[in-house]
Amino acid sequence: MFRRNSAQSRARRGLYAVLAAVVLLLAGSAAGAEQPVAEQAESKSLPGFSHGTVAVQGTTLHYVRGGSGPPLVLLHGWPQTWWEWAKVMPALAENHTVIAFDLPGAGESSIPAGGYDKATTAARIREGVHKLGYTQVSLLGHDTGALVAYPYARDYPAEVVRMAVLETPLSGFGLENFYGISFHLGLNQTAAPVPEKLIDNDDVPTYLGWLFSGARYPERIDQATFFQAYASPARRTAGYEYYRAFAADGANNQANAHKRLQMPVLAMGAEFAFGPHVANSFSQVGDDVRGVVAPDSGHWIAEENTAFLSACAKLFFGPAGVPAPSPELANCVA
To answer: FRET partner for 329 with CA separation of 20 to 30 A, picked from 150, 166, 266, 317?
Structure first.
């Protein structure tokens, strides 16, 4: 979701105005078509993990599952898929049953015709979790996945044991303040068919490559995999729809903020991206929010500082009483 480049903020605001004008000149719309329910072979694989699909209302979810122990659900961000978690999943699977979903419309999940607001997406993920046989889970979400994890925990609090959110403030509680830091936040929210017509298949490596170049360590991200994941127009439109729902998400979050989160919440920002702003945002909707800053990392913590995220998550989702091995991990303790 995020790329920091404040030096061009005035130019980006100008771009937003241009894009708004372009909306009036372009016609038509792009709509995703529901893909058939089927078991699918995934080109990316991890030893000890298996792939599957589960049908839920309005779509079909692809997931990757492995390990044993209490269930831990992983929710990725944009422009990624479940594969963003590949480096941390083996460590987490040592003590948990790890279930990494592709969000509806992304990766190998089918593309729903609508319902990209985060409350609807959370309800779909929850239905998938239930159909896989789990009623209580912990959640780990990054970027868009964190925005989905919040209404899951808020609307079904008895079913969420603990939640960790990475690298995004919450819509309605601070995310809006950051729209000027990267032009993609405005472009992706622009009504169809503007981004659809501006970004074609050949532009994907340029657009997403520029986004990933804002990482602290872009070479640690499997960019080619994500370029391929968003190589089709329908997949890109699904991604834009998550952004187009931001205003509705913010209104929904504000209307339901009285349902304060009671479960422990780990709110992690990266040193070279959102930093403490994640905890500042989620503290407005939760009573037990532990702020953590991932050192020496940009927005894509799971790939850029895998060791830190793995160590922190194992502490936070693990048994109580395990001491932190370093001061940086102090707030990760269960």
So the answer is: 150
